[in-house]
Known about the structure:
The protein has 205 residues and is of the alpha+beta class. It has one domain: Roll (Pnp Oxidase, Chain A).
Amino acid sequence: MQIDPHTLTPEATYRLLSGLVVPRPIAWISTLSPTGVVNLAPFSCFTFVSNKPPLLGVNVGRKAGRRKDTAAHIHSRGEYVVHIGDASQLNAIHESSEEHPEDVSEAELLGLATLPGETVAVPRLRDAPVAMECRLSQVIPFGETGAEFIVGEVTRFHLRDGLMNDGKVETMALDPVCRIGGPNYATLGRIVTLRRMQQTEKSVV
Length: 205
Ligand SMILES: Cc1cc2nc3c(=O)[nH]c(=O)nc-3n(C[C@H](O)[C@H](O)[C@H](O)COP(=O)(O)O)c2cc1C
């Protein structure tokens, strides 16, 4: 089968890409509205783009041409928190994607406790195994639908006790979830360990 991308609507292209680029990790992002309401939503067009400084990138689309609350709050405050949720939080991750007016807190609605940020004014989720406080670094618009690739520098990592062993993250203990197509998710399957490859040391220019 071949598909000419020019024949596809934006929705059809989204369905295709989100089914093909899998599995995707999920950035569970808290932001603060102008009136101080804690907003929470999941974003799976997510990766890291630099290790020094640590930079995370997430692609946020628009709703009927308007910025989503998450993007609008990041633009106005320049701060947010990216969480990695675990399998026990999957339902809350999914439910937090429901659209609500800006003055409704998804965190409160879902009964998720928060803690104050250390380096940002935005609260973080108490029970997420990982929370990364971020300061906005760059916004890069892409394509014809107004999507923005939002890049933020991590100003503090919070990891639940027991997640790090010998400088490495215990992935099984983290128990992350990922998104595949539509409202479908996957958890970690079998882990396969191969021989370690010799790699040239990462340099700082
Ligand atoms: C698992 C999951 C991943 C999602 N990933 C993205 C994404 O990468 N980009 C995006 O714009 N929307 C994504 N969404 C949709 C947003 O979560 C949804 O539009 C949400 O209502 C945005 O909330 P906000 O207006 O409070 O920012 C995703 C939804 C789910 C359930």
